Protein: Arb2 domain-containing protein
Organism: Felis catus
Amino acid sequence: MSISLSSLILLPIWISMAQIQQGGPDEKEKTTALKDLLSRIDLDELMKKDEPPLDFPDTLEGFEYAFNEKGQLRHIKTGEPFVFNYREDLHRWNQKRYEALGEIITKYVYELLEKDCNLKKISIPVDATESEPKSFIFMSEDALTNPQKLMVLIHGSGVVRAGQWARRLIINEDLDSGTQIPFIKRAMDEGYGVIVLNPNENYIEVEKPKIHVPSSSDSSDEPAEKRERKDKVSKETKKRRDFYEKYRNPQREKEMMQLYIRENGSPEEHAVYVWDHFIAQSAAENVFFVAHSYGGLAFVELMIQREADVKSKVTAVALTDSVHNVWHQEAGKTIREWMRENCCNWVSSSEPLDTSVESMLPDCPRVSADSPSGQP
């Protein structure tokens, strides 16, 4: 059994507390003091000292994984599925490794959308300057020119991006289960134009600029000798502080700040933006939506803001485990009536497919997805 550094550091304190608690009333003050000491120890920071560096590969090959002919993620050498607990007792490190792999898979799915599905990557905002933050969506060649029908796909919240339903299913099951690719290919085979939204790409992250704090010598009228002594003390203090910080938090990650994308700073904003600049401009007489989880909420918000336009262009909406709420979102009576006629929400249920499921809300019908997850 391996014992972590943090456990070894805390062990004497725990032993002391146990010994003190066996003593008389006079020992209570010591117990209180030790408890106070324990409360001041940042266990998360302490455990970082046990971690290997947070330095992960940036390719699937670097992780020694690849997708096989069935679209399953497998280890190149062993053929085994992905293992989350790569290092025992290091949950944070394992989570960071999982997230790093997830980012690679996101880029891999983007490549599949372009190469496998022949979709075009379209930058937004459409009038963005060279320097401002940007996002993107994917569209088929005929998305805006197809005169008959257009399919629009919206995923849920979280880490997923355009082309994905669930990262967990991509990693643990296969590409067909976790991506939108089967939907896209079938829609295109049946003559639909396709637009794939990217509602979670709301900002870019950049490193926070370091704030320069001028030293007292920068603006002081003190004699040069006195300023030199102060600067020397300041440098020594900074050196000790940096040494302590390196010991306290050797895995300290860069401080980042978020720069939001204009008119696309939330899933709801994104849905309205793509409607105004693309879907509303399309030639299709019939537009169909497939929206999962939070994507359903984004669609309802779109309806609230563009009710007449949506009603005139959208033929049907397939929701899957949608988290919309017509009361909280204050959807009016005419919207609720339209949803009852034109929307259906397939929800997690063990009942046979399409079996009616009771709903507490007066909006669209709910039926069984014949799946415990409700995933499309």
Summary: Confidence is low (pLDDT under 50) at residues 1-6, 244-250. The longest strand covers residues 286-292. Residues 91-115 form the longest helix (25 residues).
